[in-house]
Amino acid sequence: MARSIVEALGADDITNDVDFMALCERIRKIGREGALQISYLADEVRALLAEMPDHPDANHTSKKRAALVAGHIQNAADAFNEAAVCGARAKSSFLKHMAPELETAYGKTKAKPSNKPRFKVGE
């Protein structure tokens, strides 16, 4: 799995802004997919372990122990989700902080018109 994640990220050199944007997008997609899959696995583990009979020497019920174990797997899913968020933030941060260089390269871009209806109160 780790090898497939590394392959999905790509070994291309990042030499321009387009490559950087594509890398950020790949990080975001991998993070979202990984978070979803691992979260499902955590739910499955929680359900399977909760069905085990209670042990007389255990301090907690099977459901409580299952939740404790599955919580660690859920933490891994949260880490993938954080990676996805950071990939999106890196993309927007690049656009914000590298605006002068981007304007020099591509020219100043116009703001997109809003598709939201314009409401006026009191008229």
Assembly context of the chains? single chain
**Continuous helix count:** 4
> Based on CA inertia axes, which overall geometry fits?
elongated
> What is the distance, rounded to the nearest whole angstrom, between the alpha carbons of the first and last residues?
60 Å
Write a structural description.
By secondary structure, the chain is mainly α. It is built from 4 helices and no strands. The protein has helices at 2-9, 17-50, 62-97, 99-106. Helix 2 (17-50) runs antiparallel to helix 3 (62-97). The longest helix has 36 residues, at 62-97. It is elongated and about 70 Å long. The termini are far apart.
Question: Which descriptors apply to this entry?
Answer:
single chain, 123 residues, mainly alpha, 70% helix, elongated
Please give the structural blueprint.
Elements: H1 2-9, H2 17-50, H3 62-97, H4 99-106
Helix pairs in contact: 2-3
How would you summarize this macromolecular structure in one to three sentences?
The chain is mostly helical. The protein is 70% helix and 0% strand.
